[in-house]
Specification:
The protein is mainly beta. It is built from one helix and ten strands, in the order E-E-E-H-E-E-E-E-E-E-E.
């Protein structure tokens, strides 16, 4: 899976919208209630570090097992420290990729979430730079 487009998030207006108090069943239907509660600001929820956050549009299917599909937009926070099993945008040999960062015996590897793709284990002079941590996936149903 590769990165097709990178850009900064432009946050000009507040996005407060009503948040309904009742939760919606994903199983059996429940009685409805139109009670509106607090507001939800998507900017505050999705982008806690606006100056370090970017979006990327992805191409490919190597991360479909993690729910990331071609043409999805990822919200990437460059201020977060990646930990074992984080999904990251990384630069390997001067090319961007999106993979799960896994440490094997203390060595970083980039693992796809599709069995049709190989794990990336750095060899010799290959370079890895973790560019940012994926915090959210925007996927159109």
């Amino acid at each position: 899976m590769s990165v097709r487009q990178i850009g900064p998030l432009i946050l000009e207006k507040e996005l407060d919208r009503p948040l309904f108090q009742n939760k919606i069943q994903a199983g059996f239907p429940s009685p409805t209630d139109d009670e509106v509660g607090d507001s939800l600001n998507l900017q505050e929820m999705l982008v806690p570090h606006p100056h370090a956050t970017f979006y990327v549009r992805v191409v490919g299917d190597s991360m479909q097992g993690a729910g990331i599909f071609s043409e999805d937009i990822l919200i990437v926070d460059r201020s977060l420290k990646p930990v074992d099993r984080s999904i990251v945008v990384a630069i390997v040999n001067k090319e961007f990729t999106v993979k799960r960062l896994v440490y094997e015996n203390g060595h970083p590897t980039l693992v796809p979430e599709n069995p049709n793709y190989p794990t990336i284990r750095l060899q010799g002079d290959e370079e890895l730079e973790v560019w940012g941590v994926v915090t959210y996936v925007l996927h159109k149903p």
